[in-house]
Amino acid sequence: MTPLSDEALVAAAQGGDRSALDQLLRRHYDRVYAVCRRVTGSASDADDACQEALIKITRALPRFDGRSAFGTWAYRIATNASLDELRRRKRRPAPHTVTEDDQREVVDAMAAKRVEAIEDRLALDDALGELAEDFRAAVVLRDVIDLDYAEIAEILDVPVGTVKSRIARGRSALAATLRLDDLLTDPRIGRAVTVEPTGEATGDDLLGAGNQNGDDERPTDATNVISDE
User: Fold this and answer.
1) Residue 14's beta-bridge partner residues?
2) Cα–Cα distances in Å, from 89 out to 38, 93, 194?
3) Largest CA distance in the chain
4) How far is residue 151 from each of residues 25, 42, 61, 143, 157, measured CA to CA in Å?
5) 108 to 1, 101, 113, 120, 166: CA distances (angstroms)
6) pLDDT tens-digit profile of 67-101?
7) Residue 224 pLDDT class (50, 70, 90 cuts)
8) d(C-alpha 77, C-alpha 56), whole Å
9) Which pLDDT value is given to residue 73?
10) Residue 104: its pLDDT value, please?
11) How do residues 114-124 score in pLDDT, each as one tens digit?
12) Residues 196, 202: contact at Cβ < 8 Å?
């Protein structure tokens, strides 16, 4: 059976179909959470921001008019919820470290590689935390969520040229912080991303399939997050 489109699910959900709403939230949950996780830089802050975003999406859905794609609209809400969480907490993400004791417990090469991968991702969290909020949001939407420039411009309500500038400057700052020169690591899938002069990025997956055993713990049921609705 062919899955229903977002448009069909939105129409059904706006008509009161809770099953359609559940399918819609489940379909976009991973990306909504990824925005929150990388913009806030903290699993606990991401949980709060993600819950707030899903509640706002649910409450605002009856007024969604379809002028933009549902995903673009939802990621805008997630981005704003994440930035609001950062401002509310008025603090940067706490630094993460993997101690020598942790590393002594690594008994095989595969586990050692995994620890290194986690360290890399945590280092990137810290580096993202050093970016100005505008740069951070643009980089996350492009390099984590893989949106195009037009979608990001719509989400951030700025011209496409501004989006490209923020992404290029954000990537440059990340590379300098991580001492990687022209190489970044995508925080969600561990993809090596070569930064071109235009601000474009290309690369391959170096660390395998994202969060199979990842450092980002999060709820897996979108329905539970909005259970108070």
Assistant:
1) none
2) 16, 10, 33
3) 56
4) 19, 25, 19, 13, 10
5) 44, 15, 9, 19, 41
6) 999 999 999 999 999 999 988 876 544 544 444 44
7) low
8) 7
9) 96
10) 44
11) 444 444 556 67
12) yes
Q: Is the dihedral of CA 153, 163, 90, 123 positive or negative?
A: positive
Single-letter amino acid, residue 65: D
Token match 């980089």: residue?
139
The predicted model gives 131-135 an average pLDDT of: 90
- The better pLDDT of the pair 192, 26 is held by 26
Q: Helix/strand/coil (H, E, C) string of the chain?
A: CCCCCHHHHHHHHHCCCHHHHHHHHHHHHHHHHHHHHHHHCCHHHHHHHHHHHHHHHHHHHHHCCCCCCHHHHHHHHHHHHHHHHHHHHCCCCCCCCCCHHHHHCCCCHHHHHHHHHHHHHHHHHHHHHHCCHHHHHHHHHHHHCCCCHHHHHHHHCCCHHHHHHHHHHHHHHHHHHHCCCCEEECCCCCEEEEECCCCCEECCECCCCCCCCCCCCCCCCHHHHCCCC
Kindly list the structural domains of the chain, giving each domain's residue range(s) and its CATH number in brackets, ordered by start: 1-94 (1.10.1740.10), 95-214 (1.10.10.10)
Q: Are 180 and 146 in contact (CB under 8 A)?
A: no
Whether residue 195 contacts residue 172, with contact meaning beta carbons closer than 8 Å, is answered with: yes
